[in-house]
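Please produce the structure of this protein holding zinc ion.
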Amino acid sequence: MIIDSHTHYGRFSQWGDFSPEFIIDIIGDCVDYAICSNLEGIDSLYLKSELDCNLDMIRAAKKYKKLLPLAVCQVDKSLDIHVMRHLLTEYPQFIGLKFHPECEKLPATSPKYDKYLELARKFKKPCLFHSGHIKSRFSSPALIYEKAKQFPDVPIILGHLSTGPRESHKEAIKILLNSIRTESATLYCDTSWIDFGTGNLEDVILLIKKLKNTPKGDYTNRILWASDAPVGDFNQSNALYRKNLDNFRVKISSYFNDEELLKKLLYFNVRDLYGLY
Ligand SMILES: [Zn+2]
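Below is the modeled complex.
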């Protein structure tokens, strides 16, 4: 079993024009499920409302059983959380929430997130944040960590760990380790975009090594494999997707020589986090 923990569809987004069929074709039979959210509520030429983009996501997930929906939160556009409360109440199929501080241009530390995170706590939904460059004033991992500390019992995923160069990844790893050492937040991360340029997985390997050997023990359960498909040219066909997944398996297997670890990264961790039994 393999689950891709971070994918999308969305027509007319800044990253491309992606139908639900497109992501279904890309993942093909490479994975069993893909956790998915609708870019039409995040960044699109025809941006949809919080209600409409998420109802579309539910329809797509009903048609394509491989898609496990996340609800897109428009923290800065919605006036309050009644829409999101309605969605989570009526559609328990939403397994978690998706936040994009960079597209919303709303710093992750803003108090506007609080009501959403209270909902996440109430409905027991993990929250996937786009985690940007360490210098981003909206979505740096440090800002997300600040917010996560206010909700230590809500699992918060640093999507892409952080964007940017190795320095950005190292900083995000430090933040993860700090949260584990001090038990100040429940941070996870996904592996999408890390090392996408080289495919050598050097930074993913560094991340795994660091979390495997924390002073509190092995915390590799906090790492989820993800592609972010179809965002990124390297993600936009089944052949490329398969190549990237195979590369991940080969590099991680040969470096760590630990099949259980690989299974955790590809499946067990995401299953346990989202309760997908
Ligand atoms: Zn995303």
